[in-house]
């Protein structure tokens, strides 16, 4: 019987191995959004547009004006473990691009109908389209004109993995997650112009601008005027560590920890050490159960932080965690100690 009969060992076909890998990183439309936007950033784009239909379950399309992919490289773009971003272990250890695993497009295209169109030249009549076909996911490349840059369309996410599709929530909920993924990327690069549309309606249109005023305008449009009116700009340096951003004052705490953005070298992370340092710094100025708001950027030498901890790269490991923790705590503590509403009122009267 089948129960006792040993199966022969065989190598799984590429589509199946990619679908298995997708289980780790492709959870919902928002995870696809993150990967596609990161690729567009890594390509050096100046303008990135995201079109969403039905919360992303029907369509996610990212169009960028980055370097594009040459015809010779296109067959590899959708292949697993194929990347242009690192070549060696040394590269990995000092990696500054957002991607490096060479897995996202392979994983996503194994669980959706993915089409990539790209042009690496300045002639808008050039351009190629690639899709991965069949169980072997063979690349099929055909001509398709496109201005310099890349468009990736992901249709019908999880159409072939019903178990996954069952976990998709309502259009409204999925779009809220997609918008959050967009918000994080838009807060990571002020020099890039961003557009987000849902069902053909413009949700965000963010012009580029690196000046403090332009940054504050972007934050206000992504997180609300209230945020920026109750936040204090911070900028501190210690050795190779640099912290900057906006620290919410105790006058604008929230019931949920839903407006807390911490970027390490341009990448949003959720890190326990960072969370602890922040909590400590706010401990004396916030009521119990209230959550601070902040948008903070920590920049440090890529060599002293390991981003290859988890496939989603939401976690990092600092070489000297203690030092990072103390720097964060003292910077925030110092900033908050001088901006307490009590002290301000006292001075004002
Ligand atoms: P990774 O980003 O880890 O390298 P991906 O699967 O996300 O892996 O992408 C594979 C490769 O396809 C990238 O290394 C890059 O060379 C190319 N690529 C993907 N998206 C873009 C894009 N928007 N513009 C230019 N090249 C891209
Ligand atoms: Mg990538």
UniProtKB/TrEMBL annotation:
Keywords associated with the record: DNA damage, DNA repair, Endonuclease, Hydrolase, Nuclease
The keyword Hydrolase appears for this protein: yes
GO MF, one example: ATP-dependent DNA damage sensor activity
Keyword Repeat: no
Domain DNA mismatch repair protein S5: 219-337
Superkingdom as given in the UniProt entry: Bacteria
One Gene Ontology term from the biological process aspect of the record: mismatch repair
Transmembrane region(s): none
Gene Ontology CC annotation, any one: mismatch repair complex
Family the entry assigns: Belongs to the DNA mismatch repair MutL/HexB family.
Function: This protein is involved in the repair of mismatches in DNA. It is required for dam-dependent methyl-directed DNA mismatch repair. May act as a 'molecular matchmaker', a protein that promotes the formation of a stable complex between two or more DNA-binding proteins in an ATP-dependent manner without itself being part of a final effector complex.
Name this polypeptide is given: DNA mismatch repair protein MutL
Organism: Vreelandella salicampi
Lineage, opening ranks: Bacteria, Pseudomonadati, Pseudomonadota, Gammaproteobacteria, Oceanospirillales
Gene: mutL
